[in-house]
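Subject: design request, 388 residues
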């Protein structure tokens, strides 16, 4: 395969990205001007959503290398492009650092001094260590991102197979690092919103949602690129594998979500069940049922048949559906902490617009600079010839 895979996205993508970024910036500005507390919550939801897809996409790149997968090689560059969000995601967190007092109860010194439980957690839950952990997590993600991408892009030119071996070794180091770092991210920015509550499976829950959303995001971009002729040699066999991967992680998310609920419901400990009780009162019970339908029932039903996993139209639909469901999942994790009754307004709708615009612009830049197919990968031809 030649450098002909290095093409450009149509100009309309750039125009749409600019409009969305403009609207998104206006909404963010208006949100923080008119209701900074509500804006900080909406900001946190978008940050968790963006971080999950950025980290999840990087995880999928590493997973291909460590697993020696062949079928995904022609499409791997899409996950590499989406992992380009890793250096950008910390920008979405900047406003949050000015609103930690609004978001996190444990940042209130008077609350800590009068609460023995918070005093016990203070060595971990303190602002200084919180910021340090954030910096370490994203520095590690950025380090591995740049190393993976550097080797992959360099291989397009040199055709050096040793670069694949380097990335395999990098993946072996990255996966345990990722397991710890995404757990830290989930606990710090999600679970610590309720410092009196804890779950030993919360980080796995966050991970499962992140991966299913990352697979959905990658599938959506792959299908768009295929329609535009940027990935012309993909077959129904490749689409089936993408559908099967989405289906597998949809089920994994449902298993983890149900396990967390069942264990706490069965134990019926006050310090555990209050978190779910918040999500089963004031209208949140309807949101909880909707989440099950959005994130599990519909994707499960749509992706159940073999034909559905091979159909680009259905895959495109369910990929968008899963991304919306994952955003609703992040909303469900965060918002009940700050509102006893269900609320969903213009900030929750408007804040993600900026992220969508940034992702589209990121793809425009990446496609203009790099091949959309890793043409130097020694497994590429086997990937193109992949059959079920």
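Subject: RE: design request

Done. Sequence follows.
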């Amino acid at each position: 395969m030649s450098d002909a895979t290095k093409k450009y996205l149509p100009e309309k993508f750039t125009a749409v990205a600019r409009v969305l970024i403009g609207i998104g910036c206006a909404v963010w500005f208006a949100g923080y001007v008119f209701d900074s507390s509500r804006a900080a919550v909406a900001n946190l939801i978008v940050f968790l959503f963006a971080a999950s897809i950025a980290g999840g996409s990087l995880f999928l790149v590493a997973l291909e290398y460590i697993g020696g997968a062949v079928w995904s090689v022609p499409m791997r560059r899409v996950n590499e492009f989406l992992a380009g969000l890793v250096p950008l995601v910390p920008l979405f967190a900047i406003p949050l650092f000015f609103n930690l007092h609004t978001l996190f109860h444990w940042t209130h010194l008077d609350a800590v001094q009068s609460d023995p439980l918070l005093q016990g957690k203070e060595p971990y839950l303190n602002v200084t260590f919180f910021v340090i952990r954030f910096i370490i997590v994203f520095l590690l993600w950025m380090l591995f991102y740049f190393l993976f991408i550097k080797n992959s892009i360099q291989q397009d030119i040199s055709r050096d197979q040793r670069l694949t071996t380097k990335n395999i070794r990098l993946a072996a180091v990255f996966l345990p690092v990722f397991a710890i770092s995404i757990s830290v991210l989930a606990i710090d920015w999600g679970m610590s919103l309720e410092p009196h509550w804890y779950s030993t499976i919360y980080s796995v829950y966050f991970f499962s949602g992140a991966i299913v959303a990352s697979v959905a995001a990658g599938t959506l971009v792959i299908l768009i690129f295929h329609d535009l002729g940027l990935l012309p040699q993909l077959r129904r066999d490749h689409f089936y594998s993408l559908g099967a991967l989405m289906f597998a992680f949809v089920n994994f998310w449902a298993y983890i979500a149900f396990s967390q609920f069942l264990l706490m419901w069965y134990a019926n400990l006050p310090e555990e069940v209050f978190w779910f009780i918040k999500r089963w009162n004031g209208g949140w019970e309807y949101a909880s049922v909707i989440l099950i339908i959005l994130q599990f029932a519909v994707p499960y039903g749509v992706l159940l048949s073999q034909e559905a996993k091979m159909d680009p139209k259905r895959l495109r639909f369910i990929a968008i559906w899963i991304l919306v469901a994952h955003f609703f999942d992040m909303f469900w994790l965060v918002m009940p902490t700050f509102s006893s009754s269900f609320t969903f307004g213009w900030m929750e709708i408007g804040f993600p617009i900026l992220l969508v615009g940034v992702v589209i612009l990121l793809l425009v830049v990446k496609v203009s600079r790099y091949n959309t197919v890793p043409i130097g990968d020694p497994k590429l031809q086997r990937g193109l010839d992949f059959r079920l």
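The chain has a mean pLDDT of 95.
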